[in-house]
Specification:
mainly alpha
Length: 88
């Protein structure tokens, strides 16, 4: 019975999203929202196109440099999605 519960929990979408989703991250958003904290240590999984021209230290992990800091990109209260203008 416990195996079935564990298997069900692993299948649920919320469990599978342990790593941050960087699919909507653009270079402009990274510079505006993330560069303040991630100037030395780039987060994992960010596209090389986003980091082009920026020089974070290789191998430096944000969790080691900034322990206990929560990434703002995961907070929709501080950085709500940008409202789009209605099309005419």
């Amino acid at each position: 019975m416990a195996r079935w519960v564990l298997a069900l929990l692993l299948i649920l979408p919320g469990v599978a999203q342990a790593q941050a989703d960087h699919s909507g991250l653009t270079r402009a958003k990274y510079v505006r929202y993330c560069l303040m904290c991630h100037s030395r240590a780039a987060p994992e999984g960010v596209s090389p196109a986003v980091l082009m021209g920026l020089y974070p230290e290789r191998g430096l992990q944000p969790a080691l440099v900034m322990p206990g800091v929560t990434c703002w990109r995961r907070c929709e209260r501080c950085f709500a999605p940008v409202a789009r203008e209605p099309t005419k």
